[in-house]
Amino acid sequence: MKQVTGLGGSPGHSAPSAYRAAVIGTGFMGRVHTHAVRASGGEVVGVSGSSPARAEEFRAAHGLASAHADPLELIHRPDVDVVHVCTPNHLHAPLSLAALAAGKHVVCEKPLATDAETARGLTRAAHEADRVAVVPFVYRFHPMAREARARVASGAVGRIGLAHGGYLQDWLLHPEEDNWRVDPKIGGPTRAFGDIGSHWCDMLEFVTGDRINAVSAQTSRFNEHRGEAGRAVTTEDLVALQFSTEGGAVGTAVISQVSPGRKNQLVLEVSGTEGSLRFDQERPETLWAGGRDHTTIISRDDPGLGPDAARMVTLPVGHPQGYQDCFNALVADTGAAVAGGEPEGLPVFADGLRAAVLAEAVLESARERRWVDLPRTDP
Fold it and tell me: What is the structure's pLDDT at 16?
């Protein structure tokens, strides 16, 4: 897999003209990816969905050139450079493998796979194919998340000893609310953690440069049955997580898809020997910085903003940047990597493998009611 760890492509510039994308999946994520490809200067040359009718409906709604009943036919088109996999989770691995085998670059929605061993195989396949292979941990692309990372790396907050926060939603609060993610045959054995807890852990490790090395978790459900048919639920609605890191920090996180009034609140706070930082994804224009003698709010127009945060700023302050802007930036950096650049912080399949290993450790800890050490995540 291409290495993309240095400085490169800016989301403020167009992706290279060779960024010709296939989008597989016609739901919300398919729409987000399609917009991001176009916003970054690329072209969506075709779409495939769960049925020919849905693919055609999506094609017409978005003014695309073609719709394909068979995703493999779309993958093998000679004018496709990058395959965006935006399907339900159980299809991520086979479609990504097919794309890599066809010599395509891949952007695969998370989770990369529904088990760690398959994710490990995908990471190895991307490396052997020498393709750019990306997993959209997009909250990394908020300018103030990048600023938090830079301040931690500079030593501004000292040695980190504590990290805490969580990711709270309410879209599955009621028992009549159902979704394919609830079905372990489609979504995998973990839901709340695999879907949104993985984002929180990625943000923690990305911002701090430190890695979780042990977890103690509890899982729970508000609803034992869902949908009109009242089908039994086996995946978790919420997770309470305690962890330690390789660098010696300790922390907690609460992950929930059943917290009334919370729509998409990802909050990360880290405390070091010299200061604290707090990032709230629902208020992404600012970063809270605390010290023993004073606190301050850092805005993305701060003249002291680090270069990596500054390159993510695409609109003047007062014109909020949000979720779609993060996706636009991710696709722009993917395009830069495809063109041979090395954009800083691009999340790749190895990061998706990391999330799969963490998810299995969380489930094991909750099931066995004990601390679980994290195994290595080398492909």
Answer: 43
Q: Give the C-alpha distances (Å, rounded to integers) separating 264 from 152, 170, 196.
A: 25, 8, 9
The answer to whether residues 48 and 55 touch, using CB atoms and an 8 Å cutoff, is: yes
The one-letter code for the residue type at 304 is G
Please name the helix (run of DSSP H) or strand (run of DSSP E) that holds residue 256, with its range, or none.
strand 250-256
How far apart, in whole angstroms, are the C-alpha atoms of residue 326 and residue 331? 9
The 10 Å Cβ neighbour count of residue 50 is 15
Are the C-beta atoms of residues 212 and 226 closer than 8 Å to each other? no
Distance, in Å, from the CA atom of 236 to the CA atom of 219, rounded to the nearest integer, reads: 6
pTM: 0.94
Note the maximum CA span of the chain: 62
- Distance between CA atoms of residues 177 and 344, nearest Å: 39
Residues comprising the chain, all counted: 379
Peptide bond into 111 cis (omega under 30): yes
CB of 14 closer than 8 Å to CB of 40 = yes
Q: Is 301 helix (H, G, I), strand (E, B) or coil?
A: coil
Residue with tokens 């995946």: 235
pLDDT tens column, 41-64: 999 999 999 999 999 999 999 999
